[in-house]
Amino acid sequence: MLHLSESDLRFLVETVATSRRDYDHVVNLVRGKDDLIEPMLEDPKLVERLFRDEETFVGVSPHLLFSVLLRQIRRDLEKEAYVLEVDSKGKRIPVFEAPAVAELLANQPTRDYLAEMLAAFARTNSGVIYWKERGTWHKRRFSDIDMDDMIELARIIDPETRPALYRRIADIALFLSGIFPDHTVLVTRRRSALSAKRTLAEYEQEGTRFYRVAARETDQGHWRPVFETLAEKFTLARRALNTLSDRYFRAHRARYFQFGAEG
Description:
Elements: H1 6-16, H2 23-30, H3 34-41, H4 45-52, H5 54-59, H6 62-78, E1 83-86, E2 92-95, H7 98-106, H8 108-120, E3 126-133, E4 136-143, H9 147-156, H10 162-179, H11 181-189, H12 200-217, H13 224-232, H14 234-249, H15 253-256
Antiparallel strand pairs: 1-2, 3-4
Helix pairs in contact: 1-2, 6-7, 6-8, 6-14, 7-14, 9-10, 10-11, 10-12, 10-14, 12-13, 13-14
């Protein structure tokens, strides 16, 4: 199910249904009908309007924005042979996997999950947690964009609430290595100065591991096949997000995501 607000639906209808003027009527017709909305989300006019007007770009919901951009990336890569990858020296090199990345994004549940996941990082949270362990009270500030914080939180909380954290840990690995690949390059170059951070290989290893754990432990059965796919094809998913970030989001990353790197 697509999660589009009323303003999203209005934007979608006004942009795609250019031969109509009864927009309120069309919005009523398509509301809640994914089979009607899906073809509209494929219309290239959406991307054109988003990048023609910066206020529009930051005005639509994160979920709609990433739903549109992921579809655009799929269309782009269906016509191309390679994607560009940032190596450890910051140089972009071609990797001939564009068809495989496009095929991954053609899978609707996976694509919808990636849009939902990216939207979740538009706003992050932090707070102080107190817990008692071995007779001693502990205090720590946790951020839900920090993998180490989430791993520690998963260790100390009740077992029934851990599956959501396993998913979040895997999502952080995919998000940071996908949208901020230059962060992993910095880590590789300055490992001694950033010893708590991770290399690209470590993000991939932990992302794969925790998507597997999330698939096994989740109580949301509809996401289990997606977690299994992302565990198996983490590198392809990362390359999809690398391409999205490089082509359509580089100028907006710092503004749209208020943190910029793992803390």
